[in-house]
Amino acid sequence: MSTTRMIIDCDTGIDDALAILYALRTPGVVVEGITTVFGNIDVAQAADNTLRLLALANPGYEVPVAIGASRALVRELTGFSTHVHGDNGIGGVQLPSSTQRPVNETAAEFIVRLANEHPGEIVLVTLGRLTNLSLALDLDPELTGKLKKVAVMGGTIFKPGNVTPVAEANIWGDPEAADRVFTSGLPVLMVGLDVTLKTRITSEHLELLKQFGREDCRDIIQFMDESLAFYFKFYREANYLINSAPLHDPLALMAALRPDLLTCRQMKVRVEHQGEHTAGMVVADLRAQPKVGEFIEVAVDVDAERAVGIFLSAFM
């Protein structure tokens, strides 16, 4: 079986945590590093959460953690998503602290170094703002030809936004960085709300995990159960979902490994960053002869049932 070398760039909240745990428990995936960015929580808390999750999962090899951007390229910081992810970003769950420390490189430096050491081999999965990747492009404009794939959790084309009527949180949080990445020529796959909202984990799924989960995943499953209780409460209040929540970040990560889960379309896109009501909107030129923007791959449909089944199977 071929091995996928992966860097996960995230703002370690609840669904980021699920994505990280999935990657660490999936055969054939080597997580070469995890880089953190501001978003759900501040960048240092995201790194601390990540180190605690690595200690919890105990992958059997060291996964370096690099701290990245603490704010957007040009925008002022407007606070964090504690109402969605809890004060500590992982639903208030207290995981034991880790003895591992973050590396001395910035996230952007780390991404550039690994892409140059393993050209054409690294799959980068971004689960937060695209600030770190934008900064990495500044450090090495040739990066566009060195990453195998960039799977981005973010954006929406046909569904409403989740922070504003038209903007999804990760793109809205740094639209200038997102526009830079989407127009850079990087091999981008955008996995946004069009597909993540259809892919939900439920309380019944958690019961299955508690019943049939592997012995070596017991602590992971307990963490998932506790942190998702907070997430379910938010989605009940915000989206009227009953004891369920979308697997936003895990789906983007799974899509990087299993493109067969998605139906995708090539679209020319730009990210709006001027508009009062439209900042963070991914504007797709859907005309017969699109002229605005650059082509990226956009996920427009998902085999949601199979995606959830594959996610759960990593722990069973």
Explained architecture:
The protein is α/β, with parallel strands linked by helices and 316 residues long. The protein is built from 12 helices and 11 strands. It has a 9-stranded mixed β-sheet with strand order 3-2-1-4-5-6-11-9-10, with helices on both faces. Helix 1 (14-24) links the parallel strand 1 (4-10) and strand 2 (29-36). Helix 1 runs parallel beside helix 2, helix 1 (14-24) packs parallel to helix 11 (248-257) and helix 9 (203-212) runs antiparallel to helix 10. The longest helix has 22 residues, at 218-239. The chain is globular and about 55 Å long. The model has no long low-confidence stretch (mean pLDDT 97).
Order of helices and strands: EHEHEHHEHEHHEHEHHEHEEEH
Q: Structural class, judged by helices and strands?
A: alpha/beta
Q: How many helix segments? A: 12
Biggest pleated-sheet summary: 9 strands, mixed
Q: What is the number of beta strands?
A: 11
- Silhouette: globular
Work out the radius of gyration.
Answer: 18 Å
Strand content: 15-25%
Describe the strand arrangement of the main beta sheet, using strand numbers: 3-2-1-4-5-6-11-9-10
Report the mean per-residue pLDDT as an integer: 97
